[in-house]
Fold:
Amino acid sequence: MKIYSRYKPGPKDGMTFTEESLTHQEFYEDTKTENIINKYVRIGANPYLPAAVGEFLDTTTISDFQTNMERFRAVSEYFESLPSDIRLQFRNDPKFFAQFASNPENKNALEELGLIPESKELKDINPTPQDAPAFNGGVNSDEAPASQDVSNSDNG
Structure:
């Protein structure tokens, strides 16, 4: 009788596979770490990542970061103040609500939900051109123009 211990382990049974291997041996050289590193050193980039394509955008119409964060916070707060059944229609995600509310085609749906006043009320509260305050755009002015709400209620 043999006694085995931690310092004198017994024989290992191991595993024997009888089925055909699904491993493709023709890719062995391509998957060796040394070959991948040598290829990286040779060409100066990771050969397994797609080449980055340049993207040129017109960013002149994008507001600054702080303004966008304030808009995001305002939309999120407004969305969280809505009843839960309305939030559920937008998967409880302010992004989907903002996309829906930004589309002028959804104006009637927003009116039905009670999120915006009906069209006839909008005409009553909009100032006429004679009543609208004059705005000189801050040109040749020592003071900054007063902050005004320039949201267009016709767009929904």
User: Anything to note?
Assistant: The chain is about 40% helix and 0% strand. The first helix runs from residue 28 to 31. Residues 121-127, 135-153 have pLDDT under 50 and may be disordered.
